[in-house]
Amino acid sequence: MRIVFAGTPEPAVVALEKLIASKHEVVAVITRPDARRGRGRTLHPSPVKELAQKHGIEVLTPSTLKPGTEDGEALRARLRDLSPEAIPVVAYGNLITPDLLDLPRYGWVNLHFSLLPAWRGAAPVQAAIAAGDEVTGATTFRIDKGLDTGVILGTLEEKIQATDTADDLLTRLAYAGGDLLVETMDGLAAGTITPHEQSGAPSYAHKIAVEDARVNWQDSAEAIDRHIRAHTPAPGAWTMLGEERVKLGPVSLIGVDPALEGVALAPGEAHITKKSVYVGTADAAVKLERLQVPGKKMMNAADWARGLGGNKEVRFS
User: Fold this and answer.
1) Which region is the signal sequence (predicted)?
2) Spatial CA neighbour of 72 closest among 102, 94, 49, 105
3) Helix H or strand E encompassing 127
4) Which of 48, 56, 116, 142 has the most Cβ atoms closer than 10 angstroms to its Cβ?
5) Secondary structure of 61-92 in HEC code, one letter for each residue
């Protein structure tokens, strides 16, 4: 099958690699324009663009797909020339306008990292971990005018492990999902896929802002553990210590710990021992493993606590 791939960040690279290695012909890639990063604010290509260039594949970087715009019209003209049969999409990050949807014979086929209609939207992996879901997965579906509402072409399930961060889970889903996307392209080409409508009550995973990653110590220990893992590594869970914002790594659920015998901690209140830092929640203490204070790198929580000297009165908010 003759395809054009649309994607931008690192998780999309895995799918593109698998498509390039498949029997299908990747004739071009659509990705976001180069973005400024780092202290020097220099322009950097997207991970998908870097891989495409490595393989000598044409790269299209429109700033918008809207009709009537210079970039949008140029893209339409090039797609008509390329005549793709399908456009697989993985985390492209730009709105695909309705007039483009029927351009390829088999449509735009999105790889979404949830079992639709669960967790439609921008952050399905983070939402599944934060909600305490035991199982998630990936879905390939044909993009339509709605938000992740199109007919389903393929699915796979993935168990969420008790220690999974968003990065851990997304990495596994990216590799398994890449295989699913290739299988979907195979099935469309062979005519062996029967699309079916989504069923069940939908849930939604909105785009995550930095404010959303703040830890609420009034939540239960399990909810806080899931919240931190869901926001690791980006944007990073955080809390306040006085006037300073402190970034937190995943915590440990400790159950009954002899080090806390006779110690009752209010939510956000820390208890510091020679080897550990514990923080109270709504129902049980958690053990801080790593944290990052302004101007420092992520460090072991016990090492940070030793740097406090004699100050053991610590409360996070």
Assistant:
1) none
2) 94
3) helix 124-131
4) 48
5) CCCCCCCCCHHHHHHHHHHHHHCCCEEEEECC
pTM of the model: 0.94
pLDDT digits over 21-64, tens only? 999 999 999 999 998 776 667 888 999 999 999 999 999 999 99
Task: Determine whether the annotation assigns residue 22 to a binding site.
Answer: no
Beta-bridge mates of residue 11: none
Q: How confident is the model at residue 310 (pLDDT cuts 50, 70, 90)?
A: low
* R_g of the chain computed on alpha carbons: 23
> Which run of H or E residues covers position 11?
helix 10-21
Strand partners, 152: 141, 196
SS3 at position 53:
helix
Return all residues near 11 (Cβ < 8 A) that are at least 6 apart.
Answer: 90, 91, 113, 170, 171, 173, 174
Pick the closest to residue 64 from 35, 94, 42 (CA basis). Answer: 94
CA dist 184 → 105, 136, 199 (Å): 14, 19, 20
Q: Which tokens sit at 311? A: 């100050």
Indicate if the pLDDT at residue 294 is higher than 70.
yes
pLDDT at residue 193 tops 70: yes
116 labeled binding residue: yes
Q: Which of 228, 208, 236, 313 is nearest to 271 (CA)?
A: 313
Has 79 been labeled as part of a binding site? no
Q: Is 114 annotated as a binding residue?
A: yes
